[in-house]
Specification:
Number of strands: 9
Helix content: 25-40%
Order of helices and strands: HEHEEHHEHEHEHEHEHEH
CATH class: Alpha Beta
CATH topology: TIM Barrel
Shape: globular
Strand content: 15-25%
Strand order of the largest sheet: 1-2-4-5-6-7-8-9
Distance between the termini: 28 Å
Largest sheet: 8 strands, parallel, barrel
Number of domains: 1
Radius of gyration: 17 Å
Length: 255
């Protein structure tokens, strides 16, 4: 049975960890997601100047950690001392930007991990290769799936590690649907990760008929959760796994 088949339906996927409760993309947020009963975690992978894979969303420092430099211009040794809780509302104890190898070493045996390849400004960098190397090193091929808005990154990991599932991220709006329609026939993928605003019953049926699972991002409003669960999506990405589980439990109990 593949990783995707093992996930419950609907799967509650902690977006950048339990990021409503702890600073996003940190080991603390990932561990909390495990403790809260999330079915999987999602994280963002990015390359540093010295070709280390770190878990960080933005192109630059500034929002979650102090600084202005681009991640690709900074060595890991310069990122390690930074406090990654800077942008967390309400304050939080000092925490740090983790490497992907640290996350895989500590968590791959505990919870499935969706690794988003975020080389959006440098489409041809070595991020896919470096991520694949780490997944192989930590024997995590049965515990992860990849995703990206970048069709080139998905194509590369499909060639490098075809046994690991891939999710095609779809931007909101007409542009997102157009990109997906143009590239989907040529990019092997098992999952579609659309913005919640794109998902309606007709499109969901079409994707399911094509054999695709549909994991929807990023859903934090309980009414939107109810709508998507009622439509029959296969999973949602959320900052608040506790809320999502409560909504699903109430909805399933009322059915």
């Amino acid at each position: 049975m593949s990783l995707l088949e093992q996930l419950p339906r609907p799967a509650i996927i902690a977006h950048r960890g339990a990021s409503a409760y702890a600073p996003e993309n940190t080991l603390e947020a990932f561990r909390l997601a495990v403790a809260q009963g999330a079915h999987a975690i999602e994280l963002d992978a990015k390359l540093t100047h010295d070709q280390r894979v770190v878990v960080f969303h933005d192109m630059r420092l500034g929002r979650t950690a102090r600084g202005t430099a681009r991640i690709r211009d900074v060595d890991l040794v310069d990122l390690e001392p930074l406090d990654a809780s800077q942008g967390f509302a309400g304050g939080y104890a000092v925490t740090h930007i983790p490497t992907l190898d640290a996350v895989l070493a500590q968590l791959a045996g505990q919870i499935p991990i969706n690794i988003e390849l975020t080389n959006y400004n440098h489409l041809w960098d070595d991020l896919p290769q470096r991520v694949v190397e780490l997944v192989l090193r930590f024997q995590a091929t049965q515990r992860v799936w990849f995703s990206s808005f970048n069709p080139l990154a998905l194509s590369r990991v499909a060639r490098l590690l075809p046994e690991v599932p891939r999710g095609f991220l779809v931007l909101p709006g007409a542009r997102g649907r157009l990109i997906y329609r143009l590239f989907a026939p040529f990019i092997p993928h098992q999952v579609v990760h659309p913005h919640f605003s794109l998902v309606d019953a007709a499109w969901l049926r079409r994707l399911h008929r094509r054999g695709k699972r549909v994991f929807v991002y990023t859903v934090n409003d309980p009414r939107e959760m109810q709508r998507l669960f009622a439509l029959g999506v296969d999973g949602i990405f959320t900052d608040d796994p506790v809320l999502a589980q409560q909504v699903w439990s109430c909805q399933a109990g009322a059915a």
